[in-house]
Amino acid sequence: MNTGQYISGIAHFGLIGWALIGGVFQPAPEPFDVTEVSVISNAEFEAMMVPTTGPSLETDLAALTPPEPDAVEPAAPQAESPDPAPVSAEPEQTAPPPEPETAPDVAALLPPDPPTEIEDVAPVLLPPTDAPVSAAPDTSPAPKPRPVPRVAPEPVAAPDPEDRTDDIAQDQAVDDSTADTQQDQQDRTVEEEAATEIVTEAEQGASHAPSSSARPRARPVQRVAQPEAESTTGTQDAVRGALAEAMAAGEAESPKPATPSGPPLTSGEKDALRVAVQKCWNTGALSTDALKTVVIVSVKMKPDGSPETETIRMVSASGGTSGSANQAFQAVRRAIIRCGANGFELPSEKYDQWREIEMTFNPEKMRIK
């Protein structure tokens, strides 16, 4: 037989045997905890939940009557006998009184007292009594007439600023358009402000301001100790000597500006440079204020005739505002950079003369220094 068949047969026999006898080796089940439960109705449950009242204690405190003492029979008279000799008897020891028994506390077992009802009664407010009010004394000064430039039998109030003043008051304008005889139209007029009396300076209210003020105290003079004349003279001489030495050293160290060598530029060479820059100077984009502005620009040149762009600066401007001057300077700067990119045609032997150039840009005419 083939090996695969042996393996298959052994596997099948093992599976069948495990199915037959596999349940024998299962562990015993663990015991369950069982609790007995009884079912009751709602009525029984409510009866169980009713609070039970404690036993009532009836304290019957009967009046304890002390026992009546037994009747003592009178003793028979005995014959008188001589008094015996006094015998010293030991004093009897009296037993301590018994401790009173403490009564049990029954306050906790008694029913609680019913709560007392509290009535919310609003308090009665008494009506306010009208207390006598004392009148404050009127301490304000009596009004006094204001000084006016006109005096009349009857006082006249100050007119409005829009009204027209006249000697005779006219209530409203009179229109004589319907009359036979035409007269000049009269406008509304009012009388000028007037008073019945002349108010003098003596009648005016006195001012509470003081008529004169006290003179302020003078500041204390600080006394400065004056140095001796000899030390001052010596210090001044030392300072003068130090200043003279410093000025001499500064003059020796500061180099004198080198004078340009070679012949100056001719008028033809200047005109050629002006025409070359003017070709790139676009004045059509400038505003009206910029066209009225004259700008002086300084620029340093390289030996090959091209400008150093970082050295282009505005020396001065006139004839316009700061905004128009800046606009004109930017147009000039673009013209110098654009036309000088390949270098201007300038004589190399005169480089010291055109090393630094100042150009005046005027919309009317242009000059070069």
TrEMBL record:
Compositional bias per record (Pro residues), positions renumbered to this chain: 140-158
Gene3D superfamilies, per the entry: 3.30.1150.10
Name listed for the protein in its UniProt record: Protein TolA
Entry superkingdom: Bacteria
Compositional bias per record (Low complexity), positions renumbered to this chain: 196-227, 241-252
Biased composition (Acidic residues): 163-178
Region (Disordered) residue spans: 56-269
